[in-house]
Design goal:
The chain is mainly β. The chain is built from no helices and eleven strands. 0% of the residues lie in helices and 52% in strands.
Amino acid sequence: QVQLVESGGGLVQAGGSLRLSCATSGRTFSRYAMGWFRQAPGKEREFVAAIRWSADSTYYADSVKGRFSISRDNAKNTVYLQMNSLKSEDTAVYYCNAIDSIPPFQNYWGQGTQVTVSS
């Protein structure tokens, strides 16, 4: 069982920055691919960014490319999302996600952290 706890959300002005953190429990963090998703009011949850367990590959939604950066520290069992040049449309609840790299590829979610960008 893996538990994910997000932090770092808050209120920021457009053009500002925030860094989200997702701390995980368990001894097998390095085995998990990690990702960030977000859900705005009235919209479906959408993919934001992901990083492989080995951290050698990262993936981003087109809407955040060049502004957001995902990273991980396997020694601290933590994944980060650095968000720069924030826009009002980035306002959402951000969720951390973990997917095991071995069968049965168990999938875990955090409780979410609110990010609000004021224009």
